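Continuing the series of single-chain predictions for the mutant panel. This is the parent chain; the variants come on the following pages.
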Amino acid sequence: MSYKTILLTTAAAFLATTAAAQTHSFAIVTDPATMENCKSALENYRESVCKDGLAAFIAAKPWRSPDELRDSLIHYHKTRNLEGAVFVGDVPIAMIREAQHLTSAFKMDEKGGWPMRDSSVPSDRFYDDFDLRFNFVGRDSSQTNLFYYSLAAQSPQHISCDIYTGRIKASDKRGDKYGEISRYLLKAAAAKSRHNPLDHIMSYCGSGSFSNSLVAWKDESITLREQIPEAFKGGSEGAKFLVFAMFPQMKEALLQEISREELDLALFHEHGVPERQYITETPHPDDMDGYFRDANYRIRERIRAAVRRGKEAEQAKDDIVREYDIPRLWMEAWDDERLAVEDSLYDAATGIMLEDIARNRPNVKMTIFDACYNGDFREDDCIASRYILSDGGALVSIANSVNVLQDKSSSDLLGMLSEGYRVGEWMQNVNILESHILGDPTFHFSAPQDAVRPDLKKTDCKYWLKFTEASYPCDIRGLALHKLFALNYKDLSPLLLKIWKGSEEYMLRLQCLHLLAHYNDSNYASVLKDGANDPYEFIRRKSAYYMGKTGTPEMAAELAALYLSDYNSLRVAQNVGFVCAHFPDSLFIREFERQFAEADWIYDRERFHKEASDLFRQAFSLESSTGAALRDKDDRFRKFYISGMRNQPYPQHAGALLSIVCDSGESEDTRVQCAEVLGWFVRAWNREEIVRRIDEYLNSGADTPEKLENELIKTKKRLENYMK
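Parent structure:
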């Protein structure tokens, strides 16, 4: 069958299904080889999507570039009312550059420090956000399905998806990729005919995630109860909350959990790479022998690592003796082959690997990997894909293609799934550059009889206002607030404050905080102050972060009070330490010392003061060094400190950055770097002043290099998005 015939056939199918009352369409995008080898399964899947309410059609052709496919999706959106798409097989991958502000954490050097492949973000936002504009950079010379693009200055500098997308991509190396794809499509099709409410969930926190603060960990049971209430009505099996220290070998317990046929949703908060979930740092010891075994393993691994780096073994041992004052006898067997095998097995117990998934056949319908790189689909294989392509019942993975920030909410608006929304419809509202659906984006859980599902296509503020009322489920109210924000509802700020003050729901208040961060007004200030005493740890944590990033003097006292009252919440205390230097003239330190003198509830005051001072000293040392670097044109570390302000955008140094931008005597690279860094001042009290200064410079008639002008335009748009 020719490609033209395929398109004509699918067009006819579209018309036929449209006549059967579907108002929106869905594109199954694939390549010729996958079409030829998986034709029956593709058609079976298409029919199942049609029966589920979407006019599905197959678009199969040799896609020469992401641009060609993107143009087709835009055309389908205009002519066929396209709702979403899934990319099946070898569909081109867009690698995005100069858009790190659209990620949660990715900040790899794009200027030559890292290979282009590593310093770019694989992202399907290229396909599903039609407003974003890109400049083509080039095609990868070895992995030819990778195409590089930079985010254009003329583009919006925020994500707002027009459709949702997903990917189904199998490994070339296992020798049966078309068989894997076919089996998955048949599995996904069959699932649509089954009644499956969202009523069994499991959450796991690995070491190094927010489980390090049990104050943070405990709150997830409250937020998920708000979002997925049915899971808490079925006894102990309905909702399980696991943490790395529960058993020495959490791996086996987790593999058993995800194999449960009744499990609907699993959330993994952990570290990750494409081929591994890092379940825990080491198996958690539960007796003295376990601690000794763990210590010996760590010592041997440290010596092996040093030798691999070229250091002599004896020198490595000397280093360990000096650092830990332990006998050299503990180190003598570091090169024993038998122990090397045992240590390898010991390490394997700390993670779920690709081969583990194949052996254990996950049955969990949907998995959220709140981890780095587990969904890196530019690789031949990755954890998130392996889950769904296994022989088990797993259907959908939500995962990240690059590294991801831990200090974010991974379950915003998750309650939409409880109401029967498609996974793609949920993700369309919460996407960041690196987040992706691997599997069927049209999958949805069975809606309850009393489901509340507002029409996501509505653009009338009055329509969405009614869904902000207290009678509606938590995340439906949150969704309505996000829709009102997108529609630029003029009275949203006071409405957010009203709902914030009147709601007991953790996740709804969190959405109010997220959205109010765009308003530099008294309502935002009021919520930040209230947020410092909120029962939800994540709100307290984010309030600390936002307070510091504003840099307004009135927040220094609030931030100091938050640290003193909540220092046992590890993540809150860390965030205070991270942002405390954003106030001018050591204002925070003076406030802390004043309040500490009056804080008679502090136990072991000397130790407390030393720990706090050490934390704050690190922050102020970095701020001081940054200020010095900005003033010293000859400082060889200047670019390092300027780059660091992407994480630490000190409001008090904005003027210095602007001065460098406007100084024609500075190098072009440095001026462009400063212009880019200013785009990270989105929460600073002086962001409006930064925009005014940029406008003045751009309109001054100064001879401005093109790269600098483009970067200033991007920065201006980024800041204006936070100036409601």
